Amino acid sequence: MRDARRLATGPAPETAREWAQATYSRLAALPEEAQPLERGRLVAALLLGTEMIRLRRASLRLGVSSDLDPALAAFAEGRSRIAVERLARLDDRLASPRAWPEPSLVVGVRGSILAISEVLTQHAAYFDAGGRA
Fold this sequence. Notes:
Elements: H1 2-9, H2 16-29, H3 36-62, H4 65-76, H5 80-95, H6 103-122, H7 124-128
């Protein structure tokens, strides 16, 4: 959770591959006695981090990073509901009839927004625990 929060607001995100490798290592290190919920939360963090990395890069290319930053900041502060609301605003902007320079990239960004929103909604209690890391 702490790493995911740092990833949300850090100056330069790791590559998705590095993020996945680190998360898989943590998953493999879980003891046999670990509960399915614990494993599920790690898998959720894996997806969340991967999609955040993709979303941050794509938002720069589309010129919408100023719309994304407040959503990621809310997540980093342990406020998943607000993050999801802000992501919905960004999605609404991307769904507008404006002619985006890379329409296929917009589709990918909207998919990342949906994936992140779903993870944050399903695991809000976990990601919101303890506030800012």
